[in-house]
Amino acid sequence: MSAISDTGTRRDTTFTFTIDGVEIRAQPGQTIMEAADDAGIYIPRLCDHEGLRHQGSCRVCTVKVGGRSVSACTQPANPGTNVESETPYLTKLRRDLVEMLFHEGNHLCPMCEASGNCELQAMAYRLDMTNPTKFPYLEPNRDLDASHPDIALDTNRCISCGRCIRASMDVDGKGLFGYVGRGIKRRVAVNGMDLAHTDAAVTDHAISAEVCPVGCIIRKREGFRIPIGEREFDKGLIGHEIEEKANA
Amino acid sequence: MPELRKARIATASLAGCFGCHMAILDIDERLIGLMGLVEFDRSPVNDIKKFTKRCDIGIIEGGCCNEENVHVLQDFRRNCDVLIALGQCAIMGGLPAMRNAVMHSENPLLECLEEAYISGRFIRNTTHQIPNDPALPLVLDKVYPLSEVVKIDYNIPGCAPTGDVIYSTLASLLAGKFRGFERELIKFD
Predict the structure, then answer these.
(1) What percent of chain B has pLDDT over 90?
(2) Pick from B100, B186, B187: CB nearest A139
(3) What is the ipTM of this complex?
(4) Less crowded by CB within 10 Å, the N or C end of chain A?
């Protein structure tokens, strides 16, 4: 970004900061993650999605700035700061968060139609999550809402990222979804008796394949159109499009 | 230097679909080289039902859904130096674990058995009861991943794991240099 200064000459307002020792250029107002994406450095994230308001709730994008843990998707980039991202400590923290999400819901990849397109699963691959962990599976008893003719909600797989809430509110202007409850009981709920009693449409941005990172929001009759093994994250690790920018 | 003896491998399929054992066959012609390094002890592959000797590597497919699965698994732990959980059912319960929670019921096991033997729409069960012959192994309250029952040394993810990932894991274990998986090879489906 450039601005016109008082003297009428164009002044470059971009600045630099470093991520893991790599100097990158940022524009005023950019978050750490936005600047990193532009520079081809991928910071893992689940609740953040391009085109949606930043929320900073999943904490998978946690980075260290000046020794403090902050979420890269909400923290503005500052000139001259040094951001730590791919350190053993932060990678372990991210893996723990993803493991806890697996343990909190009912994430049975072999029976899920989102397998291969699922960002939670892809994040587990990226973070080398191959072993079962010390956390117990909570195996909650959650609802399946198949009332709508074109859409189903399998809340067993919901990770409460809130992307559908923001997409429906900000992009579709409908407010189909919202958070209910507090603490560990906080869930994403439908604004109505069930999905059939809302004005949800399969053409909504909130219902589109890119918004729900997992297999919770299901568009009926398209689940296995693309076979397992030929899906998005079978082609490459999550974030590879961003990382390829750096090599281009 | 005396010639090294072949590594002894035992395998078993617990609450699985036998797909992971089929995936072992996907190693294809590399099996010939591998068989030069290993011999099979107890395994469905050769139909040996009991351990004849202590084994170096035990490979288990499937989780624990009944009493017999637990006994077999404990027997493997006692008789194998290294125990490998092969596939998602062994690692986290997999498809059989659907009955743990996804049945949307307060008593998922009862509901599962009732639908399977009594109330299901296409059931022809003249006894109208859930099988209860004493010879049948007792069904567990939940399906358990192997690691919740015994200590597991390695996990090979996948449903089923590809022949490539099974081969590379076995080959590197036999060479004594297993260092985890290439990220591109990790798959849960």
Answers:
(1) 73
(2) B100
(3) 0.88
(4) C
